[in-house]
Each structure stands twice: as C-alpha cells, then as structure tokens.
Amino acid sequence: MLDYTFMQHALLISICIAILCPCIGIFLVLKRYSMIGDTLAHASLAGVTLGLFFGASPIVSAFIFTSVAGVSIEFLRQYFRKYTDLILAIVLSVSVGIAITLITSGVLHANASAYLFGSILTVSNVDLAVTAALSLAAVATFIIFYHQLIYLAYDETAARIAGVHVKTINYIFSILVAAAIAISIRSVGMLVISSLIALPVASALQLRKGFKATFIASVGYSFFAILSGLVISYYAGAAPGGITALVAAGALLVTMLFTHSRNR
C-alpha cells in the first residue's frame, strides 16, 4: 500500500492531523467550546471557495479566513457574553452564505466538493508542504503557551489573577484552532473535522486520568482512528473522512462500555 506516492503523502498528513487535532481538541472540550470547532470548520469552506475563486492555495486561504472567523468570535464574546451560541450562529451564517454563493454562482474554476468530504488520496506536494509548515507552527505555539492554555482551560478568572494575558492567549488559541482545521479540511473533509477534534478527547476522558495522561490517550485514539480510516478507505474505495469519523465514534463506544463494566 505504501509503495504508492499518494499513500505516502496521505500517511504523512494523517500523522500531522493525528497529533494536532487532540492538541486543540482537549482545550476546546475542557472549555466547553466543542461547537466552535464545528463552526470554524464551516468557516474554512468559505475560505476554500475564496481561495479557488482568486486562484490561491485553498489551504492557505482556509487558514486565513478561519483565523479571521476565530478572532471575530473572540471579539464578539465581549459584546455577547451571555450568548456564546449566538456568536457561533452569526459566524456560521456568514461563512456558509459566502460558500454557497460562490459554489452555486458558477464562478469557481475548480470543484469544492472534495473539501466537504475529504480527499486524502489526492493530496499534492504543495498541499503536503503547506500542511507540514502549518503543523510545525501550530505545535510550536502549543508548546510555548502550554501552561497558559491549561490555566484558561479550567478557569479564565483564576488565569487572569495569576497574571495570564487571557485575551491575547485566547486570540492566539483561535488562530491555533484555525490552523488545525485548515490542515485537516483537505484530508478528512469539512463535514467530519469536528469529530476528530472532539471524539478522541471524549474517548480519553472516559479513562478518568490526569491531564497529561488524557492528552496522550487522546493522541493515541486519534492515531488509531485516522490510520484505520486511511487503511480501510484504501481497500473499501470510500472517503477516508467518513470512515475515520465512524472509527472514532466506535472507539468512544467501546471505551464507554469498557469503563462501565470495569466500574461495575
């Protein structure tokens, strides 16, 4: 299977996604912001269509537009403190409106549907280079702000008292989420990216371990889901994104059953 160049590219991108998604997913889940991942995934589709329209790299344009959307969510939180779901609805509406308008108007010179369902087996050298660059930048940012992010994940008020620049870190984290989504959209598709952000973390949380153990376990679940999806899709001839989501959901179900039986 790995004798083919496209499968080698697919494996490399899968490794990047398997590490990156739990990095941002664990903080989104702990902050009760899981739906932000889904909102920004839809925003990335608008970025893709804008990139195709202007002849730019869809991954780069998705990263830029999703970063703007993530920063906008943080900015709007200052005005709608009690209505976070309303902010997500606003960003989602604008993003989907842009994407649908461009897709249905006939002005695009390429097919955007591959970004809906994922097409990991058609990743080009340029896609691989951009993905690697964004992955390295995102992981470096995660390492640098690791302790501040842990503070924010549990209590923003306590983090502010401890001297953490809460607003700045939140903006940086929004861009980190945007990078993870932009990297993943070509491979697993916009419709299932939120599953890779949330499901491995949800599975790891069932083990009821400490933060580091939960993070390592979520990376393990992510690797299992993505690599299994890649292998199964190769032989089944189906889109890897959908199979990956099903494997991740199945792993969550098995973990829940295991922990339930162990607790009994």
Automatic annotation (TrEMBL):
Membrane association type: Multi-pass membrane protein
CC per GO annotation: ATP-binding cassette (ABC) transporter complex
Keywords assigned: Membrane, Transmembrane, Transmembrane helix, Transport
The organism's place on the tree of life at top rank: Bacteria
Pfam families, per the entry: ABC-3
Subcellular location(s) per record: Cell membrane; Membrane
Transmembrane segment boundaries: 6-30, 42-66, 86-108, 128-151, 171-201, 213-236, 242-259
GO biological process: response to zinc ion; transmembrane transport
Keyword Transport attached: yes
The keyword Metal-binding is assigned to this record: no
InterPro entries: ABC_BtuC-like, ABC_TroCD
Family per record: Belongs to the ABC-3 integral membrane protein family.
Name of the protein this chain belongs to: Zinc transport system permease protein
